[in-house]
Amino acid sequence: MLETGILFRYNHDAQRNNIWKAREFENEVKKLLGAKYAHAVSSGSTAVACAMASAGIGAGDEVIVPPFTFIASVEAVLFAGALPVFAEIDETLCLSAKGIKAAITPKTKAVLLVHMCGGMAQMDEILRVCKEHNLTLIEDAGQAFAASYKGTSVGLMGKTGCYSFDFFKIATCGEGGVMVTNDEQCYKNADVYSDHGHSHVGNNRGMEPHPLLGFNYRISELSAAIGLAQTRKVPFILEKNREHKKILTDILSKVPGVSFSTLPDPAGDSATFLNMFLPDTEAAKRTVDEFNKAGVAGFNYWFLNMYHFINQWDHIKNLDAAAKLPIHLLGAPQDYKNLHLPKSQEVVGRLISFGIRCTWTNEEVKALGNKISGCVEKALAVHA
Ligand SMILES: Cc1ncc(COP(=O)(O)O)c(C=O)c1O
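Above: inputs. Below: predicted complex with pyridoxal-5'-phosphate.
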């Protein structure tokens, strides 16, 4: 590819020496996940946008979203012209069926389910609610590439799904994302939508028909080449992550007061995070203080520090945007400044997550586990 100089995923058939890295990347993802269709794009964020648009979700549609996710999921809904409706999560760290049910209105069109922190949602119940209420299920598995539920990859349980390949994910390509689906029409829509409406039929780009409006969400061949190489390593990374997570879990499960996020299918865990619950928010805050004192790094206390929880999203609550969005004209479906989501507050308040690295040695993992447990014991002893 560097020799041909063709870093653009489309066109230039004569010069590219039959090198198509984006296509290879997509084929590798399809093979790994068992997807019928995969479409690589420029980021996980644009992959969510493609997943929404290609499934037909747009202006005025109410979309149920979680209050705990990376902000991109909610942004994708807003910029699609749709209206986010926040619902409760549970100990899976994902939307619960109960939360979804309580948020349904006559205008609800879709659920944007986010599989958080490497795990997965309670899919049987959620699929049942979506079916009962005729809701389109879109899965943002940005943080859960290669996780599965009862043998099916997360991202492939609804109409469309997507993954991020940014710096923090199990596989990275610098910047990139992939949308997946088993629905041929959704795939065709995404293929066209992500490239200014080009049909990609024939080999004369300038003369292609444009069946739909689209925009530029294209991935470059450079990023795709890295994504391809990384995706090939995922089975190895999964094995290591799971080994490391087990060592940490074995150490920490002996500490009174510590529990872990619920994994509806433990065998399908991507094990990219160890998600640890403390008894309550105050105990979690004291634990964070102990980590800081002891120099323990690599943890996320989402409740206060990160850009992943609604408490940090003042711009969404105020609908501050550079320019008018459909939601400004249509009106927000909820009072975003006064949302009542006590379960989500409680769950995220007592959650601390550690990113797991496949490059650690087992000795390093054990040392980390012992450090974490020492800090937790100190934090919990104060009020024992
Ligand atoms: C759940 C989720 N969705 C979407 C994204 C956006 O992905 P990207 O950073 O590749 O745009 C992220 C990134 O952290 C994410 O965690």
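The pocket of pyridoxal-5'-phosphate is lined by residues 43-45, 48, 69-70, 72-73, 114, 140, 142-143, 164, 166, 177 (CB under 6 Å).
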